[in-house]
Write a structure and sequence with these properties.
By secondary structure, the protein is an alpha/beta fold. The chain has a single domain, classed as Rossmann fold. The chain contains 9 helices and 10 strands. The strands form 2 sheets. An 8-stranded mixed sheet has the order 1-2-4-3-5-6-9-10, with helices on both faces. A two-stranded antiparallel ribbon has the order 7-8. α1 crosses α2 and α4 packs across α5 (164-174).
């Protein structure tokens, strides 16, 4: 892991590997750069940069939870690009990471080479949001990695045909095992931020999505996703007919990105941005 300091004084962690066209990976709401471990071996011929967004993974927790918002997190991305001396970058954005990329497309379009979205769009379904709020910021009931790996498949509705080894890997990227049980790999105050922001005005993200119009764009949609509906996907495809698209079978929110169909889209996307 490498580190850089933001303009407001936090130290954020990132991985920077490979050579070629720069591709920045942004993880989901509570996740971190390890989410892209499954995909990384297949992202050949590019410089793969994976950021732990503030409050997640090995990055500093923010003393003010109100800074856990898409605008500040997009600013962190810009500051990372400036720190690395990168004028432009392609983004692979999972869930929250994809929303950040929409904001960048609308407000800092010149910094983007293209975007690949992982199970995210301009409309977030209420069922998916409710599912997220059922766990975000709450300590897991599991005491050990072994217990979590046994029970997580039962709780992961919409995921099928997943080998046991994958769940054993997943629990290690999601939690830290300590003598008193498993602990979060992100700041629990992220829940406070979401609750505070839920009382504000709702932002229409379709205009942000339309900012992708002249960029290479790809979408991986979990077949059983509760956050991204087929209706929203159909409208995304109508508005952007050039968007590369696939549905990841036996996956809900979020696909792992090493499914055969996901890798096919990844390959097409990387060819376009090159």
């Amino acid at each position: 892991m490498k580190h850089f300091k933001t303009s407001d004084g936090l130290t954020l962690a990132y991985r920077d590997e490979g050579q070629g066209t720069p591709v920045l990976c942004l993880a989901g709401l509570t996740r971190n750069s390890t989410d892209f471990n499954y995909m990384a071996p297949y992202a050949t011929g590019v410089r793969l940069i994976r950021l732990d967004i503030r409050g997640r993974g090995q990055s500093d927790f923010d003393p003010d939870f109100n800074n856990y918002n898409v605008v500040r997190e997009a600013q962190d991305v810009l500051e990372l690009l400036d720190y690395l001396g990168l004028a432009q970058v392609a983004i692979i954005g999972t869930s929250r990471g994809g929303i950040i990329s929409m904001g960048l497309a609308a407000n800092h379009h010149d910094r983007l080479l293209g975007v690949m979205l992982n199970d995210i769009g301009p409309v977030l379904e209420a069922d998916g949001i409710d599912s997220i709020m059922d766990f975000v910021g709450l300590q897991p009931a599991f005491k050990t990695y072994a217990e979590a790996a046994e029970k997580l498949p039962l709780l992961s509705i919409g995921f099928h045909n997943i080998p046991a080894e994958r769940w054993q890997s997943e629990v290690r990227t999601r939690w830290i095992e300590k003598p008193d049980g498993l602990h979060l790999r992100y700041d629990a105050k992220l829940r406070d931020a979401l609750l505070a922001q839920s009382h504000g005005d709702t932002v229409d993200l379709w205009g942000f999505f339309d900012a992708y119009a002249d960029l290479p764009l790809a979408l991986v949609h979990g077949e059983n996703s509760t956050l991204l509906s087929r209706e929203t996907v159909n409208e995304m495809r109508r508005r952007n007919p050039r968007m590369i698209y696939t549905e990841a079978k036996d996956r809900s929110h979020i696909p792992f990105l090493d499914e055969p169909e996901s890798l096919h889209v990844l390959d097409q996307f990387l060819k376009e941005i090159r």
